[in-house]
Amino acid sequence: MTDPQRSGPEKQPGQGGDTPPVPVVGLGASAGGLAAAEDFFRGLPGEPGMAFVVVQHLAPDHESEMAELLQNHTALPVSQAEDGERVRADHVYTIPPGRQLTLENGRLRLSPAEGKGGHVHAPIDVFFRSLAADQGDAGACVILSGTGTDGTLGMKAIKEAGGLTLVQSPEDAEYDGMPRSAVGTGLADITGPAGELAERLVEFRRSAEEIQIPDEPDALPEDGTAALGRILAKLRDRTGHDFSHYKRTSILRRVSRRLQVLGVPDIPSYLTYVRENPEELDALFKDFLISVTNFFRDPDSWKVLEEEVVPGLFRGKTGRDAIRAWVPGCATGEEAYSVAILLAEQAAGMDDPPRLQVFATDIDEDALAFAREALYPHAVGADVSADRLSHYFEDQPDGVRVAKSIREMVLFAPHNLLRDAPFSRLDLITCRNLLIYLNRDVQQTAFELFHYALGPEGILFLGSSESGEAADGLFETMSKRHRVYRRRSRPARVPTFPAAATPDAPMEAPARRRPEDRTAAERHRARLLRERTPPTLLVDSDYEICHLAGGAHRFIREVDGVPSRDLMEKIHPELRLDLRAALFQALQTRETVHTATAGVEIDGEARDVRMEVVPLDEKAFQGRYAEVVFHVEEPRTEEAAAARPAAPTDSDVASQLEDELDRTRERLQTIIEEYETSNEELKASNEELQSMNEELRSTTEELETSKEELQSMNEELVTVNQELRNKIEELARANSDLKNLMAATEIGTIFLDRELRIKRYTPRAEHLFHLQPSDIGRPLRALTQKLHPHDLVELSRQVLGDLTPIEREQRGEDGGWFITRIRPYRTVDDAIEGVVITFVDVTRLKEAERRARFQADVLGQVNDAVVAVDADQRIIYVNPAAALRLEIDPDSDLGTRLDRAVEIEYPDEDTRRSAEAAIRGSRTWRGEVVFVTRSGRRYDIEAGITALEDEDGERIGSLGVLRDITARKKAEAVAHERQQYLETSLRNVDIVAAIVDTDLRYRWIYNPHPDFDPGAVIGKRDDELGDGPGIEELMQLKREAIHHQESLRREITFERGDGQRIYDMAVDPLYDESGNLVGLTT
Asked: Looking at domain 1-209, which CATH architecture does it have?
């Protein structure tokens, strides 16, 4: 198929070994190839850093001296290849006689030279294909002198994998068969004399190492991105094809390859080169359109198509029916002919088979010309079975040609999948490895287009790297592995391909002038044109209406069906014959022709009308045009009617009939002359075709092929014409839908012309800028700018200049926020006619983002760890405290189950069940667990779990607040230990001892006042247990000890019911094992 470069295999060249990968260059040569190879190696420097493998056509029963002969012309060691030998840099290998050579994982493999299944032996193609599979974009091939076409298919494989292709100039080759076949594909990166190819190869390798363009568009510098946009714009202007819908990674790879071939350092420099050398755009275009495909590519998939799909297409069909297939992106035709062969094989087993039609389309017209020729190298025998070769191909000296019966089934035509209308009522679409180069949104459009084009139960066959499962329910899967899909029975959507230009499409309205600005002369001229000009039509040589004036519409009648500009369809029936004859005579003789008067009913009155046809100057009008002027006689008055005889006499009737007969004879004679002229033109065209075909090798066969192709194309044009008429009706409906959509959408949109004047706007834009219908035609700069910054005019001019869309956020005067997007306005002809500005209100989104940032900031300041999981317990958020303590990476661990990021230990099985039930359900839970991090650190955690719910109250996950209580646990353990010690030590001592935490709450007490129960004291402060001066003095003493972290001692008097008591209070700080203050002992 034809589309931007397919990337080669992902593996590294020569993968699988322990040594560094070695770039491998394959050289293919046949007759005259020895001298060419000697020239090549003479031009090679001493240590190029590459391995070279020379594959030549050799007699199987004679020893080859190629290695010895080449050794005389190069300093590199030359040896005959051995099975299993690993290729080494700066070494030359030659193929042994009677053997087939391939490259696998950087090692040379030898096998018998007999062609597979009796196919023609093509050792160069075989090695080049294995080189492409093993080396990917690091491979290179050189095709030198030789007869035949061996090497061409292998070179295509190298090009498809992203490798470099070099071909000896046919003029420089002793035998130009192989070079000419390779050059004819248009896939040669470098062409030149054999001696210069070596220098160019080394220069390319050096450039490839020095010039590295990133594959990802986001990694490009700003000037590189801008330059790339201008290059693609220039490419579109030169070729008419827009590659903006293709994946930028593929585009960058091909541009990078062009930079390396030319030795240009970066994309801005390449833009300069393109400006100075416009023909480089043709080379870049060819690089984008790598026409690479094979017969029955991916044989297993084609087997499924043959056995499970094709028979179903024929089920219930007879000779009155047709099987219609479409192969978009057909490249050089192999895939289209493969489909035709499968259909022909199925039809051969039927008594009354349906008609078979295969439409094959592409945007590469060179590839289409190659496909129509249907002449392929003998090496296609590697992809086509011997039985099919004998039945459906004809052996010729230069290759094999597809049989005439198959060629007649296939119609090749230029067609852009993203721009042109599709075919319809199809049974099968084969689109293999084309969609992978399109952006995701364009892929969806293509699927909608395929769904529209296929009939009920139609089949879609995709490439191995594509999938139809993302086609929004349009297709059901028949074979996921082999990418076969069936159209679902659902209403077909109107595909969103750009519409073709229609005759009734309005031209851009010129800038309007106010009536008071027009001069008296202009107003007089307008009045004359309006009131004095006779009814006039302007038609072209095809009798299509180009312009009407002076009320000529009165002579035109609209008919039901698709709108047409054909004058012969729309003219009043009473005038049709006379007008056809007059137009033919005027355009042939280049003289003015007057018709006889004819009675016509106009505006409900019988009027006499005669016509005047004036041929116009071809140079002035740049084509063959004629002017039709209608002269209408005034209606008969009642007096005139009364003065006429009551009834015509027999002689009057006879005279009238004779006049009518004369006019009829004149008309008939004119029609006869018209058809005789057309017949003469057809004869001249036929003689011209014969003369052209006489210059070709096979005169008779080529003439028949051309006639048959023209007949087939004519039949298809009739079908396509009807389909186009249907599309016009659909376009009218789509226009109505678009108008209603613009009226209903909440997106503000303004359309500007190239002078940045307003052409159209949506209601939302009307509200945003206070637009009125009178603002149509006003320049954008005249509007009051409601969005900040006020730079819409400057940005619009920038988009018009470099055709690169711009997107930015702007703030409205009312505080609202908008995303402003400015894009070029493209017509159906891909011309730039202005810009489109859209304003999307994102105020709510900005407010939501602000709230989200605020919440994230709040959670980021919380010391406790906060972890959110979804319904499957996969992590969706962690705050900084959780990331730090629990060693959860906020990036890489998102989507990981929580129990895989940390280990959770529960104190008992009941706690586990309660916690897991809370996570799965909608209730809350609090408890203590132990978290073990990846590094083995253990944390005592006080966990609180709360359900997360969406706006509808549906549970979507859980939020856990995890407080680290490890220090508290350790302090409690220390306190407990000390409590045991103190209780033992103080059991017989009249002393009060206690431990309080940093909040001055009691955690342990020994021998309290008899008024207090020890259990009632725990967890409370002194000021919560009593009051008075002694309590306040004790609280102050403890606060000072906490603040200064020092031991204090003081006598404090307490008032009790039984009198005063004086205590000698000693307060000492209490620390944990890490030296952290956890409380006081008193």
From this structure: 3-Layer(aba) Sandwich (3.40)
Tell me whether residue 560 is one of the annotated catalytic residues: no
The residue extents of the domains of the chain are: 1-209, 211-290, 299-487, 529-638, 745-845, 862-964, 975-1081
Distance of alpha carbon 558 from the chain centroid: 42
Alpha carbon of 516 to those of 78, 483, 782: distances in Å?
Answer: 91, 68, 21
Query: Which fold would CATH assign to domain 211-290?
Result: Chemotaxis Receptor Methyltransferase Cher; domain 1 (1.10.155)
Catalytic residue check, 30:
yes
Looking at residue 743, its pLDDT comes to 72
Q: How far is CA 891 from CA 864, 878, 896, 1024, in A?
A: 20, 10, 10, 48
- Among candidate residues 370, 432, 430, the one with its CA nearest the CA of residue 401: 370
The Cα–Cα gap between 477 and 383 comes to 27
Q: What is the CATH number of domain 529-638?
A: 3.30.450.20
**Annotated catalytic residue within 30, 130, 244, 301:** 30
- Looking at 3, 7, 39, 57, which residue is catalytic? 57
Q: Which of 3, 39, 137, 150 is catalytic?
A: 150
CATH fourth-level superfamily of 745-845: PAS domain (3.30.450.20)
Pick the closest to residue 209 from 50, 87, 75 (CA basis). 50
pLDDT at 684 (0 to 100): 66
C-alpha 480 chain-centroid distance:
22
So what CATH class is 975-1081? alpha beta
Q: Which two tokens stand for residue 710?
A: 């023209």
CATH 1.10.230.10 describes domain 299-487? no
Q: Is the pTM of this model over 0.70?
A: no
Q: Are 1070 and 1081 in contact (CB under 8 A)?
A: yes
Q: What is the pLDDT of residue 568?
A: 87
Q: How many CA atoms lie within 13 A of 561 on its CB side?
A: 11
Tell me the C-alpha distance between 792 and 811, whole Å: 13
Q: What is the DSSP string of 647-706?
A: S--HHHHHHHHHHHHHHHHHHHHHHHHHHHHHHHHHHHHHHHHHHHHHTSSSHHHHHHHH
Average pLDDT, the chain: 80
CA dist., res. 265 & res. 453, Å (int): 45
Confidence at 1, pLDDT banded by 50, 70, 90? very low
Q: Sheet holding 955-964: strands in order across?
A: 875-878, 865-870, 955-964, 938-949, 925-932, 903-905
Whether residue 578 lies in the annotated active site? no
